[in-house]
Amino acid sequence: MKFVSDLASSDLIKQARTAGLCWHIGPFVVRMRTPLRDVAREVAFLYEHFPLGSNEGFIDFDVSVRAKGPFGRWISLSVNGDVTFDWFRRHLALPLFEWALHGCIFHRSHQYFKLHSAVVEKGGQAVILPAPPGSGKSTLCAALVSRGWRLLSDEVAMIQPADGWLVPVPRPIGLKEKSIGVIRNFAPEAKLGPAWPGTPKGAVAHMQPPLESALRVQETVKPAWLVFPAYRPGASAKLASLSKARALLRAAENSFNYSILGRLGFETLARLVQECHCYEFEYSDLNEAVLQLEQLRSQPQLVAAAV
Amino acid sequence: MLRLLKDSATTATLELKQWNGVLAQAYRTGLLPRLGWQLLHDDPHSRVPDAVRASLESACTISDHVRRGVRWEVNRIEHALRRTDAQVVLLKGAAYIMADLPNGPGRLVSDVDILVPKDRLLEVEQALLEHGWESLKRHEYDDHYYRAWMHELPPLFHPGRRSIIDVHHTLLPPLGRLQLDPAALFEAARPLPGSRFYVLAPEDMILHSAAHLFQEENLSGGLRDLVDLDCLLRHFADVESDFWSRLPSRADQLGLNRTLYYTVRFLRQILHTPMPDELIAQADAWKPKWPVPQIMDRLGALAMLPSHFERHPQLVAGANSLLYVRAHWLKMPPRLLLKHLLSKLQRSWFPPQAAEA
Which ipTM was obtained for this model? Predict the structure, then answer.
């Protein structure tokens, strides 16, 4: 099997410029076509551990990034032939590429039931961390992933309606503004791409999915815990038990396609809360937060007694 | 993509990477769910590769969701209108779904369109406003434009469900070049079993869809409408007696001969819909003088076919502009048209403060 990192830089750039660079992200095949060498290199860095795909096969998301305007200072980005972002400043190419893929995965692909959440796994057990944007879940996810948890996703839990198992779709973890510095401190060994200033969400940088997460991308896993995280400055890390009914409603609010799937959405979510232990989780310090979740995993009976 | 729509067995001849283009075009023309339904549920001859299947199923999931939404919306409208006995006719997508017509599954519907008699219009509007709908066009001019000149009220928006109803009193702009008497439509309308709603008679349904396609602005959404027309024609030809002769006589009666001409022409050219020679000859007799048919052929193809959009986007944009002008030309007499366009221009240069009710 060949990986993105196996391609020499010149080949990579040439491929992106001509037929397009294809790779697999979990169940999806993505193709990027761009004549812009820096964009090709940045994207290839973030996805270097992912297996290459074929231009002869079916492509789920075909993303094209082109320069526009005098001196090519702007770009336009299209997905499957439709312009998604137009006349954006050139330096935003990478964040926009990632957001375009978010859009594809979150708002299409209804063969999965999807929650807006991070998903990590250790020892064969997975934690789903649903939370709205801006709640700090990506930072928490990056911290966990830097402490040995496998990354399934930092943004979306993809659940197979047939059996309730989670399908990994690991991608670069998007860190915003202050989180960038926090994670650099917390995990100096983590591989981060450059910080891109001036996006609508402030400065954005991306953490590369670790090698192991990328290599184990085919391993589906059963969810064990549903934990709703909330960052509260000054709060000590605390898990509080959540009733199944409340957990279901809150999860539905954090879902991409609960109503689109209709009855199947309800049944999938109901099975999820039935089979998982559900908690609310308040924290401020990342080390404490990671410890608390580690304890949840290794000594669940203690945690259950405490809440 | 067109070949697939016409014949599901074509699936066997496609290479995997050709599916990329097909799905992209289908998505862009709003036909992905329709294609999904046809290939996955309707037709035993189709063979879809596993890699593609998930995308088609996802699209079908969306149209199932839309169908549920439409059923519920119609239920809520019925509830809102329970105290009036006005004859309410469902139109377009909502009608196809509620009447269980074969183009219902896979149909994407953005608003519910209804037709009510003009003298019951205010009563119906009032009932809807009392049940949570709000009028969308807030500016005075737009309101006047709709009520005085158009065939429909300003759209009604329901903030809770985020849905929209278009209430029509006739099917074509009353001041336009094509005059249509709605009384005939109401008379021929058929009740939906178990409901207070009606749907248009089959010929009227075809002619309305065609009139909407060939007179309104966005022919660029037109491929979807052509697929509707193809599906409905085949269905009605099967289940209604004498349908092929009823259709042209109804077109003549309603003054929609030209519309039927375009329908027949485009359906034959683009979707190869099977039709008897008599119909073709009859429709051909109503064609406009040279060079209009040839120009419309070209403009229509540019506006509707997704491959043109991919290959020559500027030409397509040009065609759309011309068709836009044409649609306005058909909508209202020249004097009013000028006044309307100037007013629109003025408001786009000097946007008024939104009047908050």
Answer: 0.89
